[in-house]
Design a protein that fits this description.
The structure holds two protein chains of two kinds. By secondary structure, chain A is mainly α. Chain A is built from ten helices and no strands. Classes of the chains: A mainly alpha, B mainly alpha.
């Protein structure tokens, strides 16, 4: 297979198949949990504002709770760094916006290229710090398994391959890259992420809302601190 | 009314005679309903819960990381009930079945090194109610026969005698009589139609009986009718601590029977954190029906009486006091402000601990840990975090609203050579009641 054919494959069937697995797998995972069902809570609630509690649970936990910030600061702040960094790269980089526009017709203003490049560098370093922490901290090492390390890899690969793609000079949308191979590899690495996301730890991207919401509502029901 | 009998609960306790990992696994899976499953699936292994846990802080042992304590439950869930479980099994990627040896090892993690205090729940960035899940995991451990022997024995005693330490009605009656002599007030027993029914813990009855006299004085001044039942007076619920819903329901049923027999409007949960959780929050679910009465924690009631002007306080304690928040009342129960309002009413020099309220550390004995003999060195070690919070206040006396906390704190204070008296909130409030007018 030539590099051009590989790019066609990455832009065509591989993309659609991985997106289909992403959506179907995520829905399957959510449905698989929902089918387990719940039991009604019969105690008299202190508060019935459960939706507000769920929302406070979801958004309030974006910030570390006061009184608990005494230890583990590097892991906490590094977590912010690579999450924000990935968001900036995915949603702020012009070629990504054009890619989404080609698929969905949706577009938004891009961030300046240098901002994204610096962010990508910082995110790359941040992800390696996260890996080092996972490998060296006794608690994280004990908790971690193959899923955690593979999930880390499928996040790093698109970043690394994307940084290689940016080394080429070509105007997005204007002309194809001189060498289609790096772009094809980049797209395939993103598709690997799509394929893996519903099944492993990366599913926290959507499970976090359910988990925080459920706990937020339960604590609000008791009038307990969220 | 259909309430669970003790016979079914006794059968559950037979599990200890023949521990069975498969039985434990079945119960782990049964406990992993929708809400629990969302949380079990959401963990990203960040380890932040370790920093929040006083057991991990004390030992530095990574196994004491709160979410790690859930590993057997997680494995059973992933193997049998999680989405893609069948596919994982087909591909040989499912976790192996649980073994008895593994669960015996985990008994120390699920029981001895967890107070169900909920600090981990509050710190988790994924919003996982880790303490709630450990409570659920205990159901599996207890059903399989892997809970500590001390808790099975306490549960057996509770089912047989009504109390985990064997306190029966004659012992309570004697303590009541002594308090009647002390206060000159009558304590109503089995008074039908009373507004409030007070239940007590064995620790209060035997260790802090002055609480009964304090209640007599409080209800007299508030002008409220009250009673103590001669049957169903024990609030301690070892079933909730060990993780047996059958035992918990059988013990709760005795209180509910008493409340409904006496047709009281409200049951007062005493100074005991887990008793409040059991009676107020878990009880209706365990019994499968709503109560025909309200449940109010004693600090809430006192606060209400004071705000309504039914209790009049006079004078204040001038010592430097600090308040220890019982975890089940604050983090797990939503009672944070009422004890503080009361304390400001009776203390001229109240110093809050760093992290008071939501971030307060457990005394180390909650969640049944104080009843596990083998866990004693570990709970004394875990107390160091609490000790730091207490020391930072420079307090001359410590106040709390839980008899178990009080007992555990007194032991730990002695262990560390501290000289701090530990006071009960109810007794402190009663001490500063405005004296009744002669003949009043």
């Amino acid at each position: 297979m030539t590099a051009a054919a590989l790019l066609d494959f990455a832009r065509g069937p591989a993309l659609w198949i991985s997106l289909a697995v992403l959506v179907a797998g995520s829905l399957w995972r959510i449905a698989g949990i929902l089918r387990l069902g719940g039991t009604p809570e019969l105690s008299e609630p202190r508060s019935t504002r459960l939706l507000a509690g769920a929302m406070r649970g979801i958004f309030g936990r974006m910030v570390p709770r006061a009184g608990f910030r005494e230890r583990g600061a590097l892991g906490v702040w590094n977590g912010y760094l690579y999450h924000v960094g990935l968001a900036v790269i995915v949603f702020g980089y012009l070629p990504h916006i054009l890619f989404v526009e080609r698929l969905t017709g949706l577009a938004w203003p891009a961030l300046p290229g240098p901002v994204v490049y610096v962010t990508a560098g910082l995110t790359f370093v941040s992800l390696f710090i996260a890996l080092m922490e996972r490998l060296t901290d006794p608690v994280r090492r004990l908790l971690s398994g193959g899923d955690d390390y593979f999930s880390w890899l499928v996040v790093v690969l698109p970043l690394a391959t994307g940084m290689i793609v940016t080394q080429q000079s070509y105007a997005p949308g204007a002309a194809p890259p001189l060498d289609p191979l790096p772009l094809a590899v980049h797209l395939l690495s993103v598709e690997l992420l799509f394929l893996w996301l519903p099944f492993g730890k990366l599913a926290h991207a959507f499970l976090v809302f359910a988990s925080r919401g459920v706990t937020g509502a339960a604590l609000a029901r008791k009038g307990a601190p969220l | 009314m259909n309430l669970p009998a003790a016979e079914g609960a006794r059968k559950v306790l037979d599990a200890v005679k023949a521990p069975d990992a498969r039985r434990a696994a079945r119960e782990f899976v049964a406990q992993a309903g929708r809400d629990a499953a969302f949380q079990l699936e959401a963990c990203v292994h960040c380890g932040q819960c370790a920093d929040a846990c006083h057991f991990h802080r004390a030992t530095g042992d990574a196994r004491h990381t709160p979410v790690y304590k859930l590993r057997p439950m997680l494995k059973a869930y992933q193997r049998e009930a999680a989405p893609f479980a069948s596919l994982r099994k087909l591909l040989g990627l499912a976790p192996p079945g649980l073994t008895a040896q593994e669960l015996h090892q985990w008994s120390e993690l699920v029981y001895d090194s967890c107070n169900l205090c909920g600090r981990c729940t509050l710190v988790c960035p994924m919003g996982i109610d880790i303490a709630g899940l450990v409570r659920r995991a205990r159901e599996g451990m207890a059903a399989g026969g892997f809970a500590p022997a001390d808790l099975y024995k306490a549960a057996q005693r509770a089912l047989d005698t009504g109390s985990p330490i064997g306190v029966r009605w004659p012992a309570l009656k004697r303590q009541i009589e002594l308090q009647e002599q002390e206060t000159g007030l009558r304590v109503p027993i089995d008074a039908g139609g009373a507004e409030y029914m007070v239940v007590l813990t064995s620790i209060e009855i035997m260790g802090f009986p002055e609480a009964i006299g304090a209640l007599a004085r409080i209800f007299r001044q508030a002008g409220a009718s009250w009673t103590i039942p001669s049957a169903g007076f024990e609030a301690t619920n070892v079933g909730v601590q060990m993780g047996s819903r059958e035992v918990a329901a059988a013990l709760l049923a005795r209180i509910v029977e008493a409340a409904e027999r006496l047709k009281v409007k409200c049951v007062i949960s005493p100074e005991c954190g887990h008793a409040y959780s059991a009676l107020r929050w878990e009880g209706p679910d365990l019994l499968g029906r709503r109560y025909g009465f309200d449940v109010v924690q004693i600090a809430e009631l006192l606060d209400r009486f004071v705000r309504e002007g039914r209790l009049r306080l006079r004078g204040k304690d001038t010592r430097r006091l600090t308040f220890h928040d019982p975890c089940q009342l604050v983090r797990r129960g939503g009672i944070t402000e009422a004890p503080r309002r009361l304390l400001h009413g009776v203390s001229a020099n109240l110093a809050e601990m760093p992290g008071s309220g939501a971030a307060s550390f457990c005394c180390g004995g909650g969640g049944g840990v104080s009843a596990i003999h083998r866990a004693e060195p570990l709970r004394f070690a875990a107390f160091q975090s609490k000790k730091q919070q207490i020391d930072a206040t420079g307090a001359e006396a410590l106040v709390t609203a839980c008899g178990n906390c009080r007992n555990v704190l007194e032991e730990a204070i002695e262990h560390y050579g501290m000289t701090l008296p530990v006071l009960g909130l109810t007794e402190l409030v009663a001490q500063y009641l405005e004296p009744e007018a002669p003949g009043g």
